[in-house]
């Protein structure tokens, strides 16, 4: 498994508790599938392109899509705090940013 695959796997695994907990607490403001769908699709598409062609342009596009997902995730903080998971959620965001910083572009 290469570094990029490890990063993607780690991000997905770390996000599971937050996705499942916030969606049920306040569906009007914490519906991850709706709020982050566009960003998640962009990450998937850019990650696939980068996996197929590791060019600098694809790396930068992938990094930008990950950053956009992270930025959109910031809007979920209120839900995490309301669910009593604010500290864990912030750790997730910090870890996500560290993984973005590991990309070689």
Please provide a written account of the structure:
By secondary structure, the protein is mainly alpha-helical. The chain has a domain at 33-100. 79% of the residues lie in helices and 0% in strands. The chain is built from 6 helices and no strands. It has helices at 3-25, 32-35, 37-52, 56-73, 77-82, 86-101. Helix 1 runs antiparallel to helix 6 (86-101) and helix 4 packs antiparallel against helix 6. The longest helix has 23 residues, at 3-25. The two termini are 19 Å apart. Residues 16-29 have low confidence and may be disordered.
Radius of gyration: 14 Å
Helix content: over 70%
Distance between the termini: 19 Å
Shape: elongated
What portion of residues belong to β-strands? under 5%
Structural class by SSE content: mainly alpha
Largest sheet: none
Taken in chain order, the helices and strands follow as: HHHHHH
Count all strands and give the number.
Answer: 0
> What's the rounded overall pLDDT mean?
76
Q: How many distinct helices?
A: 6
Uncertain parts: 16-29
Question: Topology, pairings included?
Answer:
Layout: H1 3-25, H2 32-35, H3 37-52, H4 56-73, H5 77-82, H6 86-101
Helix pairs in contact: 1-6, 3-4, 4-6
């Amino acid at each position: 498994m290469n570094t990029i695959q490890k990063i993607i796997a780690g991000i997905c695994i770390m996000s599971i508790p937050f996705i499942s907990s916030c969606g049920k607490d306040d569906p009007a403001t914490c519906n991850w599938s709706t709020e982050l769908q566009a960003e998640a699709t962009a990450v998937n598409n850019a990650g696939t392109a980068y996996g197929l062609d590791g060019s600098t342009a694809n790396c930068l596009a992938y990094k930008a899509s990950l950053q956009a997902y992270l930025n959109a995730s910031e809007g979920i903080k209120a839900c995490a705090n309301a669910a009593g998971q604010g500290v864990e959620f912030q750790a997730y965001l910090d870890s996500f940013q560290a993984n973005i910083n590991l990309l070689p572009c």
